[in-house]
Amino acid sequence: xxxxxxxxxxxxxxxxxxxxxxxxxxxxxxxxxxxxxxxxxxxxxxxxxxxxxxxxxxxxxxxxxxxxxxxxxxxxxxxxxxxxxxxxxxxxxxxxxxxxxxxxxxxxxxxxxxxxxxxxxxxxxxxxxxxxxxxxxxxxx
Length: 141
Hints:
alpha+beta; Sufe protein. Chain: A; 3-stranded antiparallel sheet; 3 strands
C-alpha cells in the first residue's frame, strides 16, 4: 500500500471515527481497555444477537493508531457472524506479528501491515482487537 494512502486512511479514521460514542443499552457487552505504554483508555461495546455482531461502539481517549484501529474494526465486524469475527481477529493479529494473513479479509485494516516496524505501536494497533476478543470470550461463558 502506498505510504500516502496509508497515512490518509489512518488520519481519516482518527479525525472522523466510525461508531464513536457509547450508548446506554443493557443489550451491549462493555469492556474497558487501556495501555500502560500510551494514553489509550477506551471503552468498547458490542451488541450480539443470534451469533451476529449487530452493533459495536467505542469511546475514550487514545492515540491516532488506537483510534483508527478501533474505527476500522467497527467497519470490519458489524453484521458479521462471531465465527467470521474470530477469523478477522486471527488474521489481524497474524498481520501485526508479521505472519501470513488474508489481506482480502482485513480490507482497510491492512493499513497497519507495517506497524511492526514501530514495536511500541503494536500495542496501540492491537488494543481494540484485544478488547473484542475479551468481549467474545465473555459471550461464550
